[in-house]
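Today's session is about reading a structure prediction critically. Students often jump straight to the picture, but the first step is always the sequence itself: look for stretches that repeat, for charged clusters, for runs of hydrophobic residues. Only then move on to the predicted structure, which in these notes is written as discrete structure tokens rather than atom positions. Here is the chain we will use throughout the hour.
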Amino acid sequence: MSQQPVTYAGTNPQTWAIVVWALFIASYFTLAITAIVAVIIAYVKRGDVAGTPFESHMTSAIRTFWISLIVGIVGVVLCFILIGFLVLGLLAVWNLFRVIRGLIYALDGKPIVDPAGWL
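Below is the predicted structure for this chain, in token form.
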């Protein structure tokens, strides 16, 4: 009787990409706490998924986090002159686009074509 090899969810690069994107989606409901967890996982796992299509997901997630943080801070400061609300709204749309696209590509097993790009 042959046994199937035991695989753990943590050893599958696709699982890590899905977890990172799911944590980004959860950050909309947890005041960005899970986004911090997601970027930490992306930094830690980026080396483990090197050479796979999911390396681009980790790069994209890290870039999404830092751009969102910087633009978010600028948007909050600009709220005092009312243009910040527009900046924060556009940031939310951009962030949601990148996160949903990343999750869909991760579920399909596809790499992100330009992980360092703006879209």
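Discussion point for the tutorial: DSSP finds four helices and no strands in the chain.
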